[in-house]
Design goal:
globular; Spore Coat Polysaccharide Biosynthesis Protein SpsA, Chain A; about 55% helix; 2 domains; alpha+beta; 11 helices; disordered C terminus
């Protein structure tokens, strides 16, 4: 069973490469690449593409093995009997439904492998509002998935100190906190238009994380509960950039 998003243009050998990877073992979930397509991307889509490229590079180097967190069904495959055995997708989830399925596949004992030659071009196009909405939904889903310690708390300590400060401020002051991501769009566009890619990337990372944590608060039903989670980790010192990912690879750097 091969999954391919409608905005992913497969390479001429994508199907053959998925088949070749599966020939090596009967219990594999194969993850291919979704590389940045040609043309000018919006700053937030480029930010996603950069995070994804970081994940691919880390898996190539063997820094960490692929897991259900990297099971993006924009380009992935598995045997159909395994999909049936896992029960298929859970239609209750509007985002990260592939990752939730990935954990059930892992529970069946399947092995996740990254196979770069199974490549496709990701011709991504999404509005800023849609991008923010996805970040918030990821926060909700990580609570619903029962990944509070592993993801919600465990990941926050890897964020840039300024990003952590913004998240705490946004949770303490939910009304302006909810407004900040929307109001940041002109700043991101302006920085990107001036080719200030560094500042544009940093602002994208900050507002994505803030939106994610607002989603955590939504699912918990309490801003104070989200604040307790945000305050529960002690940031370590110098950190590796090769951590695995929040959705779209947020965990691969200090964003």
């Amino acid at each position: 069973m091969l999954f391919l998003d409608d905005d992913v243009v497969p390479s001429s050998n994508l199907v053959a490469e998925h088949a070749r990877a599966h020939a090596s073992a009967p219990n594999l979930v194969v993850i291919g690449t979704m590389l940045e397509g040609e043309g000018r991307l919006s700053a937030w889509v480029r930010w996603e593409a950069d995070r994804l490229a970081e994940q691919y590079a880390a898996m190539d180097k063997g820094v960490w093995a692929p897991t259900p967190w990297q099971f993006y069904t924009g380009n992935a495959s598995l045997r159909i009997e395994h999909l049936h055995a896992a029960g298929g997708f859970d239609a209750r989830f509007r985002r990260a439904e592939d990752i939730e399925l990935g954990f059930r596949l892992a529970g069946l004992g399947l092995q996740f492998v990254f196979h770069r030659p199974a490549s496709g071009l990701h011709m991504a196009e999404r509005t800023y509002a849609s991008w923010l909405s996805s970040a918030r939904q990821y926060g909700r889903n990580d609570i619903r998935f029962g990944k509070t310690e592993e993801r919600v708390v465990g990941e926050f300590k890897y964020r840039n100190p300024l990003t952590r400060a913004l998240v705490r401020w946004g949770l303490r002051h939910p009304k302006p906190g909810n407004a900040v991501p929307r109001l940041a769009e002109p700043l991101i566009r302006a920085a990107d238009g001036l080719h200030l890619r560094g500042p544009s990337k940093q602002v994208c990372g900050a507002v994505f994380n803030l939106s994610y944590w607002l989603g955590v608060a939504d699912e918990l039903g309490s801003v104070s509960a989200a604040m307790r989670l945000a305050d529960s980790g002690t940031p370590p010192g110098l950190l590796s950039r090769a951590r695995s990912a929040l959705p779209i690879g947020v965990r691969t750097g200090r964003q």
